[in-house]
Amino acid sequence: MQAAERGAAGNTIAAYRRDLDDYAGFLAGRRRPVEQAETNDIRRYLADLDDRGFKATTVARRLSAIRQFHRFLYAEGIATGDPAAVLEGPRRGRGLPKVLSIDQVDRLLVTAHAAAADASHGAAIQVRAARLAALIETLYATGLRISELVALPASAARAAEALVVRGKGGKERLVPLTEAAKRAMAHYRALRKQAGAAGGADKWLFPSFGESGHLTRQHVARELKALAAAAGLDHRLVSPHVLRHAFASHLLQNGADLRTVQTLLGHADISTTQIYTHVLDERLAAMVRDLHPLGEE
Q1: Which helix (H) or strand (E) holds 174?
Q2: pTM (whole model) above 0.70
Q3: Among residues 225, 241, 278, 283, which one is catalytic?
Q4: 235 pLDDT exceeds 70?
């Protein structure tokens, strides 16, 4: 149902599978088939998660999966009731996203481009460095999810002004490209061509020899952390998703409105984009301080 009716992404489906496998394993230990689960069974499972040291955010996500699962069983007539309907999840505050400063992003980019321009380590290493530079430039220029970025087709390198991106639920959106991102893509593709690289080159912008035919998000995350260390940054604070946050936050800092950022990020609901409202609060405070006629007093 998630795949066929809701168009859920592969990563989303895999997450549901892991959560529900754990839940089903707990019920099996109690000799309870999932379609016969009762509300107290779910409460005991949530208590077990707490005993195992899971965070409130993880428990809430597991409960969300269980709710949807039991709602589905009831709607399909597989179960006679919905035991999860009356349960409330743990309260959780929504933390502020980790964000790099503009200076920190600049240090990442300078380090990446320096490695991409260094031909002393051989063609293969230079191609990988140019690929990482293109990945970071594109990620910071567009705010794409890393799963969207690695799955870009080779034709994306020929985009004149913007990329057509297929996001969650198969929804398409148009995302403008910066000149820096286009130059980084072109440099990477030129080096690949010179090196005679193969492996999905005709189909994917960032091909690999793996099963998917393109780079994985885990591979990019590892390379990005290594680059962060080389740039003198704390690698624990740097990830593809943090660069996505940086894209959104820096746009808002420089005058973009929340609806525009929502569209660029591909958020279906404005409430998801509202995690960045702290940036707007800071900007509004600065505007009052700098522009109000009595602000200095």
Answers
A1: strand 172-176
A2: no
A3: 241
A4: yes
